Amino acid sequence: MVCSDIIHLDLLGTPLIVVNSLKAATELFDKRSSNYSDRVGMNWNIGLMPYGDLWRGHTDQSGTACRKGFHQELNPRALVTYQPSITSATQKLLLLLLDKPDDFLKHLRYMAGNTILSIAYGIEVQPENDPFINIAEKALHAAALTVNSGSYLVDQLPVLKHIPDWFPGAGFKRQAREWNKDMSAIAVVPLEFVKGAMAKGDFTPSVASRSLEKLASEPSSTAQRQLEAEKTASTLGTFIHGLVKNPDAMRKGQIAVDERTGGARLADFSDFGSIPYVDALLRETLRWIPLTPLSVPHRSVEDDEYNGYYIPGGATVVGNGW
Q1: Which entry of 7, 54, 242, 250 is 20 to 30 Å from 303 by CA?
Q2: pLDDT tens-digit profile of 117-146?
Q3: Kind of pairing, strands 14-19 and 316-319?
Q4: Looking at the domain assignment, is residue 317 inside a domain?
Q5: H or E stretch at 185
Q6: Do 28 and 17 touch, CB atoms closer than 8 A?
């Protein structure tokens, strides 16, 4: 039934479980997280790598403990050190919006990319045709087309990966090679830039430089930050879209900000939590148009049962944000 807490679909023999309620999502993804924390398997991205020793914090070949390193750099106390980078990128965004308001989507991508690259690599990107932004956008395009389960027939029939490139229908293999180049570049090129800057003694402290100083230079952990740029830009775009369609809400939001700041300055991190109407607007943006309506796919480790529903091990499990 479509109104059920969970729905089972069969994709050419591969089970797909859609979780439709908060109750079911909490039970499966939170309370039974050990069985549903597995992912589709992209080892260069901590958010998509399979659940196992590498993700839990054991070191890999380069000495990196993925979860441990991620938490060290992105815990609440550490985030305070990133506020100047975020503030600087935001101020540049406002100037770009004043200068060329029609290009606001491009400006949002620049702002998000500038923030992420500055924090992760200490890289200051350019507003126009920045090579690092171009690399990131190619990789993000590839990731968007491949991350969802069932995107290609080979997802349901793994045997197809063994067919020769010249075989009819094997175009996905050639496409995969191109995407692999793009995804490799997003992990390697910025890191090589940091290595070169450090060798010259002319670099901005960043997640990558600190990792390199600890002899833990694993590209996959820092490549994760690149993917956050597109999510940030998309969310900001939705926020602006919502304000344009609801001018009354925009006016109320401006009044709330002016009451807090006196209309004499821009709101900043010191105002966080003190403008409840704006906080509500942001939460409504995330509810109104979820960034990933079906979430990033999980994978069940073992057979399970929920309210009489059988969930086989190895099934793809997604949460329905709508």
Answers
A1: 54
A2: 888 888 888 888 888 888 887 777 776 666
A3: parallel
A4: yes
A5: helix 171-200
A6: no
Over the stretch 7-39, which tens digit does the pLDDT of each residue have?
Answer: 888 876 778 889 999 899 999 988 998 888 777
**Backbone phi and psi for residue 299, each to the nearest 5 degrees, phi listed first:** -140, 130
Say which DSSP state 148 is in: S
On whether residue 29 sits in a domain, the answer given is yes
DSSP class of 265: S
Pairwise CA distance, residues 202 & 300, whole Å:
47
**Looking at 220, 237, 269, which one is the last position of a domain?**
220
The span from the CA of 168 to the CA of 134, in Å, is 32
Q: Could you give the number of structural domains in the chain? A: 2
Kindly report the pTM of this predicted structure.
0.62
Give the domain range for residue 121: 64-220
Distance CA 53, CA 57 (A): 6
Residue given tokens 């924390």 in the structure block: 37
